[in-house]
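Slide 14.
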Amino acid sequence: MALRRLDRKEYLDKLVRFREKQLIKVVTGVRRCGKSTLLEIYQDYLRADGVEEDQIVSVNLEDFDFFPLRDPAVLHTYVKERLVPGKTTYVFIDEIQHCADFPAVIDSLYIRKNVDLYLTGSNAYMLSSEIATLISGRYVEIKMLPLSFREYVLSTGDENNLAAKYRAYIQGSSFPYALELQDQPNAVHDYLEGVYNTIVVKDIAARKKIADTMMLESVTRFVFDSIGSQLSTKKIADTMTTSGRKIDVKTVERYLEGLMESFIIYQAKRYNIRGKQYLKTLEKYYVVDIGMRYMLLGTSGTDIGHILENVVYLELLRRGYDVYIGKIDDLEVDFVARGPRGAQYIQVAASVRDESTLARELASLQKISDNYPKMILTLDEDPEADYEGIRRINALEWLIGKTL
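Slide 15: predicted structure.
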């Protein structure tokens, strides 16, 4: 199945919308999700719109040629010497976190006239409270993820046989480069293993000064294996200790913090729908790429319902929602998705053809008394149905935007 090059339109449109606005554009996301390619696509857009080559200054701090520019003074001088008088200079700095004192550099460039700044970073620490304070109110964050199912389907050229494409999507990978290797499963495995090792063993262990990388990997495997299940740091610590690897709760917290900062896992907190308050315990975690989960766990990581739940969670993030796990009385709603236009309540199930399963999925939604949309997303290839205002929708059609 041939794949076509994607322009990552949703992200590109955001960059175009903020072009030459007095804001620093910061693109964040897991390693290899396509941030550098997005900047290249945007630079092509600028050239096509009449921007001259000398108005584009591009630096990738992971490129060995640019390693000297990790020194803030050298980076600042390099960019300053290339600013074009009287014209807008578009400055792109890839993986800015490698520059030791980058906020000072960015702050100095930001206050200069006719400088339009674009940054990428593979670590949420770069926008931690301390650093964000230095550029507070002067940046917009564009949160990037690997390819959505819709993007994957578009890359194949048609919307036929969505079920087969979904299987290929989750069993291969959503990382853009991995999709080019989809006919070579061993190569995909090796590629994902390399990305995983770079993030977990190199980035997180080095940044958090973790000596016991085997324990870090054990915790990572446990979280990957528990997507869609309520977890606490105590439960993780107890499980590790029971299996003969003693670890305390604070260490688990530090490991989870590192995994989330590197965008390899995402945490969904719980929300009391009736009480309208956020709950502080028993969060759920989702992984950035199901293919990486298969790489790490093998076929033992197969769980159709939780995998679909993971894919839906990431899609809700892509669509700009804040996503929580809902609690109403003693029942759970898979997702409470809150956005500028209000909320959506979503249940996710592999199948609801069994009447008892359907009744269980409907029960929590039926307890919610407000008028926000409520739906059940399922892999069943059945016509859409309505249960007193609760829609049952094919998840794959929802993922590609056919039904909203």
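Speaker note: The mean pLDDT is 93.
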